[in-house]
């Protein structure tokens, strides 16, 4: 009650309506100002932090529309003075960027659909059916999360090369067709449904597959949405595996295709940035569009459990 | 010594609708004041304004003669018990209770002593090492109260602290709270929607509705001299029975005539005023369930037995052990409840004739709903 | 009859597991065993096991300075990445914990790095860190060859990785903050706590359940960083950014020492497994609610 308050304190006994009224006005103005300052500071700090976080992206966009000679100056050149789309045109004509993008869409799309199918089937069995070794198998699935992909990548490479499927779409898709995380996510969701949902469907003569397609999938749209966004972005951004198993230009995914530009002469930096921006945009758009879905799907079931 | 004064306190969120309007109240030291009313009446908002958790839109809040509208909650030196207890989930019970002292940098041994004292009072010594997640509702409640009594604040604020407990525990905690108030000798401001809690705990009850104070008085005064129809109906269980009727002069006397034609004689003390201002006008008669009886009692000597009778058909009979509540239906006046002795005979469907203690009934203006004979708290 | 039904129902269940276990078997269980097998052999250039050498590959590793360097580099890298990415995520989540105009734009930008590929990000950083045309030197007025200097290279890739990993941490922490009951802050204000006390006594402890989960996920993720290192520094300069994963890649696909690479893979797996198990043990003992 000391300090600032003593300056504005008014005694009830020496109550004076005018004085109180004056204080009200003063304090209301002060409170309003304080609220405004607080809000302004919050927004300002957010703007600074967001600029800091987005700086690499904003800068890459800026470089991608910069004419090549503008980059090579000693001046501070954050924003291009003569913005041009030429880099993008060059990127799409000189590099088979369209091919890369199509490849990546195909691969990431297949992986996404495949994971949703295999994971929901497995999660269905783990949550609604009783069978021998259920707990053991589920633990086995969970344990695979501890195995880093890099730890098995050599053997996988040797496997696929002996199968003779190097440099095909198949080899890009196959190893990622299921994921422990997906099974876990779907199972968390299915566990929130009462077993009676399944039993009553059974009594109505509904088969398992029918139950999954007609009842489970419509009920788990948000989980499927989250899973789709997450899987697609990860598949789109895949780097090590495609690097190892693709050789020819026609099979390259976006990440490999673009990083190949890395080695060309420095004059092409702006072109390279245009390419990088072009391949970031699809994953970014999918993320921004699916963000709400991703958050609600990932956090409503998974994290609390 | 601590006094809390609210003057013309208002709260509005959008400048048009008021959650609380012109709230005037002086709370004296050592009072147990209850804010009671239906949900949305502004009782919690008022409490939160006193705590500093809500801004006061206009009006003044004085604590110990200091204007406190603009004092931060942490500097008001109050302590509060929340409806959901608001225990800190990551802290043990001990730390939950010690928190307010810890952040005031009170020496450790002093804190330790106080925690154990408070825990002993509330019988939660064995829980000190647990976390809130491991406690039952009643235990959480005790911890919340224990945390509040660690300090000697100017007042305790309690926001529906018992509403999450089951009926039995609630009754038990009520007794303990009353005892605690006596022991601590500090002002308590207590919010509830439960009129039983209000009646049993409070030294003063503030009945609120739609943001306005309807009446602020001692529990007994509120019960016996309600300011208006709302207060009369809200306080008491079963509620007061209301019957609409007309005031008619009848020779030297004055009658209250029900829609069915049934007449009840108004006692002398009230006859003059009613005959003067309400002759041939509609009024609402309020009868507490306990003011019915099967026989004419001694205190009804001033009444004409044949003119204070009400008949009805029994609809439901509730046997409570010490008494029976009869729910009866009068042809036109509707249903009413009567609290009678447990020996009273009568089964659903039976006709009953009951005597009304007309000395203790209330008359309300049918338009303003005000109690016509309200004393204004000064009898 | 009923038993029969139970049986078919039971057998039926495996049918739903076939697709996922087929993939796991071919691309996880089998290669996992094979990796252990390979780590006990000397291999030819095609990765065929030729000479059984027992634990020699491991002995070689444990006596090689380069491997210890790899371990040390990995540990430093993981520590910087985990602390950095969690701190960034936490700051973002705290900044977005109260509603204000435009909050959606900001929360999206803080989560956005999770949509960015490590390779693309690495290429952007390569330009930013370029000693002559890079914007970092221009902005700071420094003249440092960030990537070519062993002193800075590891920090650069670690900061880049922290940035990449911070997006999902922001989401985790935001969810964690949302789970904290608002009324405990009110009680704390009445109890006399100021903003700083509330943050350290209520907010941080309130995040501890999600903090633990995030920590585990972050450590595992940091151990597996590859793309950004390959593109930005290729393990260099010298071996200053040669983390285990990169070392595995280099040994297997440049030096054709599949046996040694396999042994390193097994070590990597063991490290991650032990870390995970230890952390879960600690959690069971420590954090209780």
UniProtKB/TrEMBL annotation, chain B:
Keywords: ATP-binding, Nucleotide-binding, Transport. The keyword rRNA-binding does not apply. It comes from the Bacteria. Residues 4-235 form the ABC transporter domain. GO terms for molecular function: ATP binding. PROSITE patterns: ABC_TRANSPORTER_1, ABC_TRANSPORTER_2. The keyword Transport applies. NCBIfam families: PRK11650.1 (NF008653). This is Sn-glycerol-3-phosphate ABC transporter ATP-binding protein UgpC. It comes from Drancourtella massiliensis.
From TrEMBL, chain C:
It is a multi-pass membrane protein. It is found in: Cell membrane. Pfam families: BPD_transp_1. Its main location: membrane. One of its GO terms (biological process) is transmembrane transport. Residues 71-279 form the ABC transmembrane type-1 domain. The chain crosses the membrane at residues 12-33, 71-96, 108-129, 152-178, 199-220, 261-280. It comes from the Bacteria. Keywords: Cell membrane, Membrane, Transmembrane, Transmembrane helix, Transport. GO terms for cellular component: plasma membrane. SUPFAM superfamilies: MetI-like. Belongs to the binding-protein-dependent transport system permease family. PANTHER family: ABC TRANSPORTER PERMEASE PROTEIN, INNER MEMBRANE ABC TRANSPORTER PERMEASE PROTEIN YCJO. This is Glycerol-3-phosphate ABC transporter permease.
